[in-house]
Design goal:
346 residues, mainly alpha, 2 domains, elongated
């Protein structure tokens, strides 16, 4: 069914406009709970196969299976993230402290730039402003705890009832959306692939790189190795440069501190272990799950962090992937049909 057939009378057209306007109003009013809705989509896609297997195929009580799934989400995914945030946020000041090897690296780099250009980039005022911004950002993160809790409660509620009514939402969308069944099936398959890629592959690679770098920082005697391991994991979400933003300054800091062999070990470890582990596991998992173009990741992170905060590292690329998927579906459904009509007339 095409949009033209759906809107072939003025009444149908204005009804569509009214419904679209009301939907836009609801989305705008519920914008503070966007994390909950995106989280619901993610966990529903991830755990739908489990619900189908144990309830639909094996006949276990749907309330029991849905409750167990929500408990798994809470205990395995949410609680560790909250505990990590509780450890990480109070230590953010280390990121820009004078003892930080990252700041020491920039001081060394600035010294070279001053010798070449005579221009001083890092001043005490600039560093103080950065520290102030970081402190304000940390206070905002802590202050949004209630909003985060509300989003989590809403997400658990929606995931639970979405799993109880497994398949009903898909059937309803198939009835009301102006797409062919094969197009919707393709959309659902691509949706699963992109969700697995953004929600499983990227965090898994970040976890691997963070753990590998933590071992190196700890062995080589850097202060706060766990904190810098977490920072390496966070920056590993960025394509191309990624974790090197942390471990290269660490190597330079070790060298300038007189720890020459430790610096060489850090460089070799960063290239051969941290870098290769990223490429190796990305290649292995991308063949089974799928991969995301680096530009989608970069733009998605910029979009997501602005919209969703820290959760934007996951939600941003996912949202952008969904957009390009819907754009491709639109192209295949409508633009291809129009081209076929034009070709048939010619």
């Amino acid at each position: 069914m095409t949009v033209r057939k759906l809107l072939n009378t003025p009444l149908q057209f204005w009804t569509f406009v009214l419904l679209s306007s009301f939907a836009a109003f609801l989305i705008y009013e519920l914008r503070d709970y966007a994390n909950a809705f995106l989280g619901t989509i993610i966990f529903y896609v991830l755990f739908k196969p489990i619900m189908q297997r144990w309830h639909v195929q094996k006949g276990y009580n749907k309330h029991l299976i849905a409750s167990l799934i929500v408990f798994v989400i809470l205990s395995i995914m949410v609680v560790p993230c909250v505990m990590m945030a509780a450890f990480f946020v109070p230590k953010l000041s280390l990121f820009l402290s004078d003892s930080s090897f990252l700041i020491q690296f920039f001081y060394e780099l600035e010294g070279k730039i001053v010798k070449l250009t005579g221009y001083k980039i890092i001043t005490p005022e600039n560093l103080a402003n950065l520290r102030l911004y970081l402190a304000e950002w940390a206070n905002i993160v802590v202050g949004e705890t209630l909003n985060l809790m509300a989003n989590l409660l809403l997400m658990f509620f929606m995931v639970y009832f979405a799993l109880l009514n497994i398949g009903k939402l898909e059937n309803y969308l198939e009835e009301v959306l102006p797409f062919k069944p094969q197009t919707l099936n393709r959309f659902a398959a691509e949706l699963r692939t992109m969700t697995y890629t953004n929600v499983i592959l990227s965090p898994l690679l970040a976890l691997i790189q963070g753990f590998c770098s933590f071992l190196a920082y700890w062995y080589l005697g850097l202060d706060q190795p766990l904190f810098w391991g977490i920072m390496t994991a966070v920056f590993s979400f960025l394509p191309v440069v990624g974790s090197a933003i942390i471990w290269i300054p660490a190597a330079v800091y070790l060298y300038t501190s007189g720890m020459h062999w430790q610096s060489y070990v850090m460089i070799g470890y960063g290239i051969l272990i941290i870098g290769v582990s990223d490429n190796l596991f990305r290649f292995i998992f991308a063949r089974k799950i799928g991969d995301v173009h680096p530009m989608i990741t970069i733009l998605g992170i910029l979009l997501g962090v602005n919209l969703f905060g820290v959760a934007g590292f996951i939600f941003g690329p996912l949202l952008l992937s969904y957009f390009f998927l819907m754009l491709d579906i639109y192209k295949q459904t409508y633009l291809s049909e129009q081209q076929e009509i034009i070709d048939s007339k010619n």
